Amino acid sequence: MPPKPLKLLRMRQNEDYEEYVKNLLDGKGTLNLSGIRVEITMDMIRRESQTLGSGGFGNVYETNYEGIVFARKEIKIPSQVSKEEMHRYLRELDVTRQCKACPFVVKFYGYYIYRVVCEYNFYIFMEKVPFSAAFMIEKMLKIGKEIPEFVLGRIACSVVHALRFLKDALQIIHRDVKPPNILMDYDGRVKLCDLGICAKLENSTAFSRAGSYPYMAPERFKEGYDDRSDVWSLGVSLVELAELKNPYTTNGNQLQHLIEAIGSHPSPTLNPKIFSDCLVMFISQLLQHDVKNRPKYAQIEQLEFFVLHDLPFTYIGTGKSPKKDQERQSVGKWIDENLLSGSN
After folding, report:
1. Which of the residues 97, 171, 300, 313 could staple to 103 if both were Cys, CB 3.0 to 4.6 A apart?
2. Which domain holds residue 229?
3. CATH number, domain at 316?
4. Dihedral sign, CA of 247, 253, 259, 265?
5. Active site includes 310?
6. Which residues of this UniProt protein bind ATP (predicted)?
7. Last-in-domain residue among 98, 127, 156
8. What are the C-alpha distances in Å from 55 to residues 112, 133, 258?
């Protein structure tokens, strides 16, 4: 029999921490795959599989169960970590579980956590999404093409929906919006992933400098920031996707030079001779240097570029539009012709 997994519970106010950890040791790990509940086995955990990604907060592997392919994220945590550190590691699991209601965040299937002598082993099972926006950039550079605006529009609208869900439903901000964390499937459905360093807002404000520096908003280098810092990160990501290069690439320069560029230089812009007026204006709004002038999600959803490209999730991949007289270019077809053609 495999070791008992932990059952993730919220730590109640004034609850003894040892009692909290004891409660976590209770429970059973299962996957919910299309409505079918499957017990997680050690074979699913230990089976050798393809590496999908790796980083400071864990490695991600492909897992196959009776023909169903999904992703398994593994995190190993020393058993002697502090209460604060343990909560930091538990955050991604807790948040991912609570995002089931949002189709624009990677789908959560289940988790398995157990403790051995010197460490905790966390396994988070999620849907596997084929492409990242970073892969799209790499492929476009390779074949000498650009990412069209209707694809940029699908990405922008989907990520805004995901970020607004995190803010409105969970009162958290992502803090690491960037192309590698924006995923897309074969039909053009876009999903936000990697919630490992998200932060809970306290009085609508977050602190600490966790994240990827080239995508950080200017206010992230000061005392406090809010959900509009994710708006800036999305803006930088869209500029990178449009121009196929990050506007804040350091080329080996010191980190301080990068921080100065973000904090002191004018915000990145798109060339109006190359891109549409509504995309240029959209980027200009997302990258307002003064956070007070940067729009919140409800305001972003009123911008022309967003209205033009927004599509309810249930319509994505169907070839249909909520407006009968409105024709849309197919993101799925573009993927077939560009990301799937030739060698990857």
Report:
1. 313
2. 131-338
3. 1.10.510.10
4. negative
5. no
6. 73
7. 127
8. 20, 17, 22
